[in-house]
Amino acid sequence: MAAYDYEDAPGTYDETSATQRQASSGAPPSQDLGYDPNFVPDSVKSFVVHLYRHIREKNVYEIHQMYETSFQTLSDRLFKDTPWPSVDAVAHYVDNDHVFCLLYREMWFRHLYARLSPTLKQRIDSWDNYCSLFQVVLHGVVNMQLPNQWLWDMVDEFVYQFQSFCQYRAKMKNKTEQEIALLRQFDQAWNVYGVLNFLQALVEKSMIIQILEHEKEGLEQFTATDGYDYNGGSNVLKVLGYFSMVGLLRVHCLLGDYHTGLKCLQPIDITQQGVYTTVIGSHISTIYHYGFANLMLRRYVEAIREFNKILLYIYKTKQYHQKSPQYEQILKKNEQMYALLAISLSLCPQVKLVEETVNSQLREKYGEKMIRMQRYDDEAFAIYDELFSYACPKFITPSPPSFEEPLVNYNQDAYRLQLKLFLYEVKQQQLLSGIRTFLKVYSSISLAKLASYMEVDESKLRTILLTYKHKTHAVDTDGKIISNADVDFYIDDDLIYVVESKPAKRYGDYFLRQIVKLEGVINDMDRVKLD
């Protein structure tokens, strides 16, 4: 992957908004009058002492249990609507260990964003903490093993907080003079070049691209060990570098640069199981942004194929994540990806690529809307608008605001631009549904005959056919032209010859569904006998 030079940031170094997160918890702002940042309950003291010890001993299993379970339990019990104790209050319990304190603050800020509404100063402090933490990882000697879940959450939260800051900063209308002064003073906080540089630096310093190449040649192990180092080394830099490729894809999607985003992800073979599939949040985020980027680049077949796979996976495994803190996010992304699949199939009707289970869920959720979307009238465009607005990422404008009066909100500008471009593409597809209908009926037809059916002259028909060819083909990441067409054609003299791809019949799905139904009937009969 090319080393993108994003300009050096001065100084160091869906997708839910913070407000929505706060609303879901019903929490007040963090300046709670009863909150004492220096008070450390015994259970918190025990937590940090044990977590510190396990990190020093590289006990990944225990770290994972404490991070995933104990931290959430304590947060629910003691800090439902207040922050955790300050890092200064717990530092002396962990020998004032600099790296542990940075990790503790990273968790502290993540909890604050999840449960409360951070102030501008807290947003800036969180940026500084990420700068310090990543500087240690990039330039220090980090001899730790941390769970993949935690390392993914670091990258995921880093990009989320950047997105949240850009949205917050873009709402200038109701900013106080103090907030404007702080924004002027700390104008490099959450700077887009700084964010991109950190993620790129983690990719390059970790040498993860070379590691993945060596693994293909059998010279190194990374995926086979889930990224962990069983020879006494550290997994932190390598795995952070790996997840940073997903982070870069997400940032570029937020910026509307889909081509660059997909290029950043290229070293990861998403057709195979990998480290990104070991963490459910990483797996879903990767495919969601990968699929969305392909959708926006008109690579509909690729988007449909990957959405189908991940939706089938979620359908089969979501019951195992019901107690996970990420469960609500999993369900939300699941619904968003069904909406994106509905859009993709409406623009490129390749239903044969979709498994029966996913297809039946899709028809249940969007069957009626998908029929209406085929009409390409005002109602259809309204549905495209609705589904896109629901399922798209929260686009950002990364540039700093103008501080001149009158102050205006511009947080919706990037979204409106992407929606406009998307609906323009949908509008261009309007004629294609008509041509596709005729091509499906004939194996060959003369230009004159088709022109009379479509009530256009021959020169206009040739233009429409060229448009169809253009819109059903796209350029992939390697620069090759790929086809999205379910019905293709070629013209010889004045005769159109139709080539229709034949779907492979699937019998396995049918038998599996019948077996499940039969097992259900047998179980019901057994219960009746017992009664």
TrEMBL record:
One of its GO terms (molecular function) is translation initiation factor activity. It holds the Pfam family Paf67. This is Eukaryotic translation initiation factor 3 subunit L. Belongs to the eIF-3 subunit L family. It comes from Prunus armeniaca (Apricot). Component of the eukaryotic translation initiation factor 3 (eIF-3) complex, which is involved in protein synthesis of a specialized repertoire of mRNAs and, together with other initiation factors, stimulates binding of mRNA and methionyl-tRNAi to the 40S ribosome. The eIF-3 complex specifically targets and initiates translation of a subset of mRNAs involved in cell proliferation. Residues 1-36 are annotated as: Disordered. PANTHER family: EUKARYOTIC TRANSLATION INITIATION FACTOR 3, EUKARYOTIC TRANSLATION INITIATION FACTOR 3 SUBUNIT L. It is found in: Cytoplasm. GO terms for cellular component: eukaryotic 43S preinitiation complex; eukaryotic 48S preinitiation complex; eukaryotic translation initiation factor 3 complex. The keyword Ribosomal protein does not apply. Residues 14-28 have a biased composition (Polar residues). Its main location: cytoplasm. Component of the eukaryotic translation initiation factor 3 (eIF-3) complex. It comes from the Eukaryota. GO terms for biological process: formation of cytoplasmic translation initiation complex. The lineage of its organism: Eukaryota, Viridiplantae, Streptophyta, Embryophyta, Tracheophyta. The keyword Cytoplasm applies. Keywords: Cytoplasm, Initiation factor, Protein biosynthesis. Transmembrane segments: none annotated.
